[in-house]
Structure formats: C-alpha cells, structure tokens
Design goal:
Structural class: mainly beta
Oligomer: single chain
Order of helices and strands: EEEHEEE
Strand order of the largest sheet: 2-3-4-5
Length: 99
C-alpha cells in the first residue's frame, strides 16, 4: 500500500452552525479489521472525553471549539481552531509500511 495522503476542505455555514455540545466525526479512515479507524477528524465534545482526561490529555486539547485529529487509539494527535468565515484545508499522510 505504501504511503497515502488524504486531503479535504471544510467550511462552516454561518447560518447553521454546528452544535458543539455534540461530537462530529467529519472524516475517518477505517482500519481493515473494522475494529477502529486509522485516523479520525472531528469537532465538538468528544464522546470519550472522560477517558481522554484520565489519559492526561490537556483540557485545552478537548476544547469543543477545536478540530481534532485522533489516532487509531483515539488519542488526540493535533488540534486547530474552527473557523466560521473561511475554508479550512487539511491533509494527513499514512505510511502503511512503517505503520
């Protein structure tokens, strides 16, 4: 499989903003064993926020107003602010050989 890069863009509708008290899973890539995702990209209040806090994730990373990248074990690996007024572009590269 080698190396694959996934690209996507998002733009919020200012007339119909997301309810960030909910979790939004916007992009994910499911693992071939269907037991998890290779990565997930979402926003809002994570369903497993209590587990994240127990795992010493900072409260700042759990901010519902951030886009969050999560790894296969649902660890937060990166965050960035959600913009309402402009397009936001994202990419993530997976190296299947190096896992």
């Amino acid at each position: 499989m080698g190396v694959k890069t996934f690209h996507w863009s998002v733009k919020q509708d200012s007339a119909r903003l997301m309810n960030l008290t909910h979790e939004y899973l916007n992009v994910f890539h499911e693992a071939n064993d269907f037991a998890s995702n290779q990565f997930s990209f979402g926003a809002g209040t994570l369903l497993n926020a209590d587990q994240q806090i127990a795992a010493n994730v900072s409260a700042a990373d759990l901010d519902k107003n951030l886009w969050k990248f999560l790894d296969r074990k649902n660890n937060i690996i990166s965050t960035t602010a959600i913009s309402v007024d402009e397009w936001q572009n994202f990419a993530i590269t997976l190296d299947y050989v190096k896992k």
